[in-house]
């Protein structure tokens, strides 16, 4: 188990106390504004995901999350204070330069476009673990990422990240009376094919954004419905991952239902984990947490639209994506991407050779 160094936390805090005002302002926004979120959800009435009592003052939530935020960046840099400070300051610069604090002022419109994004970038929240951690489901195998521009997919991903950090996690923290700063992710590999090679670039961009600006937000990754192609790629990628990351990844047999039921109730299972062999088949829209019609996405989209009206009440919502500078992948990410591309190409060549040989007629035919 990793030992938390109070000395390192205090040293990093001292360094952060001296950052310039624009960076300090966005640093404060890394701690959720619970008052605002609470008023919004109270106005909507009770809902499954966020119907929790207002147990702590905003100040208490900020104090708890401040320490947790520093710890996340320290963990991401192996408790090296200087490297953690550099990473955190660069993250704050990224937020200021890309206006991330205002990302909720720009909904993806029209609704039909947002629905297309949701149908091709499969992610949703299915519930909570018994420890109170949000459970996010990601359809890795069936996400096509081909219905909108790269910027729309990046915008949507960051909006979900920010909604998780500013609304979902503070809500869970208040409900349980302790800081909850991480989530669980269930990765569904149903439908993973060689065509995934064309999506690696965008997936690498999104992963790099998370690694640099939202580090240590996932407690555990559970991989389910893994086909052969995943197993082949996992053998190549696993040795390239940092030990800290490898320990977070668990590949479960089948749809993972039995193992996941040890940490969450049935109602919180993603739809593709509820029946053995069910895969990511399209269940009713209320069960399918990927769908825009699912309560989580309805609440998220309504929240973004309401925030845009609060900020610019007299202006109509304009079409167009919220542009974010796309990062260059780190050395580790580049190596992983190249290894994945190489392995997928090998599999593709192997399949082509197999088909060619099976199509050759012998003299005995």
Automatic annotation (TrEMBL):
Gene3D superfamilies given in the database record: CRAL-TRIO lipid binding domain
CDD domains according to UniProt: SEC14
InterPro entries from the UniProt entry: CRAL-TRIO_dom (IPR001251), CRAL-TRIO_dom_sf (IPR036865), CRAL/TRIO_N_dom (IPR011074), CRAL/TRIO_N_dom_sf (IPR036273)
Highest taxon of source: Eukaryota
Domain CRAL-TRIO: 110-270
Protein name as it appears in the record: CRAL-TRIO domain-containing protein
Species per Swiss-Prot/TrEMBL record: Hibiscus sabdariffa
